[in-house]
Amino acid sequence: MSVTDSAIEAIKQMIVDGELRPGDRLPREADLAERLGLSRNSLREAVRALSLIHVLDVRQGDGTYVTSLEPALLMDAMGFVVDFHRDDTVLQFLEVRRILEPAATALAALRMPQSEIDELGALLDSLGTEPTVEELVANDLEFHHRIAAGAGNQVLCSFVDSVSGRTQRARMWRGITQDAAVERTLAEHRAIQRALAERQPEVARSWATVHIAGVEQWLRETLVEEETTPNASAV
User: Fold this and answer.
1) What phi-psi label fits residue 232: left (phi over 0), alpha (psi between -120 and 50 degrees) or beta?
2) Which candidate, 10, 45, 108, 128, has a CA 20 to 30 Å from the CA of 210?
3) Where, by residue number, does the polypeptide cross the bilayer (predicted)?
């Protein structure tokens, strides 16, 4: 383990042990470095790394503070991972979605207030009969976020939101103009909302699985076509 990694681990342990709590200010750099047996340069590198993943907040002229440590804040860094991965790796994120979102949807069928389920229906109605791709993507993101939030588990919601990043969705929906894609998406959303309204967790789980698996299958087929097309043109 590098010196910087050791410094990161030491600060993390202070937070885990409750010695540093959300909102607390870290001791002076010189004092903390001496206490941890580290050079000030190593400590600075550790603080910089932890600030990038939103564990610490460096305030110029004020000091360094532990953030709120809210799951949504900590998981925000995963959005960068999603954005910078290739399409074939995005398939792995889709596989994670296929595991997490059906579970979140099933929980939402048990926990989501009826008023919020009704609002999901209104959200779908707001699209009209012929939405643009941009409108559908925005609506889709909001639809899935509300369901994840309705599961009543903040950590789960943060994971779902992170994996369902906006850039990832934009890539997945490149083929939205294919025949009946819009209609199919809307129909699946309606089925999910209906299962939530009827408090049928397993039906909701099944529809969510079908919905995400359909996107995953589309992307797999698209990647295969992209791989085979250059070879075909070269023949």
Assistant:
1) alpha
2) 128
3) none
